[in-house]
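Q: Convert this sequence to C-alpha cells.
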Amino acid sequence: MALLTAATLLSGCGNDSGNSHDSARIIDTGNSGGTIVDPSLTESVARDRLNANLLDSLQGLPPSVGYSIMSDNQYLGTMHTPSLRVPCDDDGQHGSGSVLQVSYWVVGVPAGQNAQYFEQIRNAWTARGWTVQKDADDHWAPVHTPDGYVLVLQYAPSQDQSLSVTAGSPCFPKAAASTAVPQPTEIKRP
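A:
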C-alpha cells in the first residue's frame, strides 16, 4: 500500500465540485501482498529520482511550463509543502519505512489550454514507458514507472481547472530517511 496515502494528499488538489469524479482516488500500487521496503533505497536517492522524473516530464513542452509550489491562480495559493515523508505501512506507523511524496502546481500553461497540456504531459509519461493506471481519465492520470515510482496529474478544484502533479517514491527503510536536502520550490527545464 506504499502509495495509498497519495490519495489523501491528492484529494486536496483534486476535482472541482462541478465534475462527477470522486474527490479521493486510490492509487493502485499493484502490491496486494503488503508493504515492500526496498532496503537499497534512501530518501536522498528517492528525492533525486522523483525530481528527475518530474524534469523528464517537462521535455517537449515549452520552456515556460514548469512545476512550482505557487500556482498561477492567485486563489489557489501555495502547496502546503513541496514534499512529505509518509509511512508506507498499512497501519500508518513508521515501523518499516516511508515513502517520499512531492506536490506541485503545473505553471506557465497558456490560458484555456489546460486540457492540451494535460494530454501532452500524460503522453510524455507514456512515451517513457510509464504505465497509465487503468482507471485514469481526462482529469486524473496516475502513471507507474518501471522502478516503482508513481506520478499523478490532475485538475485542481477551481474554476480555471489548474493542473497539479504529485509524485511518490517506493518505500525506503526508516533508517534511510533524511532531510538534508530540501525539495526545490520550482522545477523548470534548464
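The chain has three helices and nine strands.
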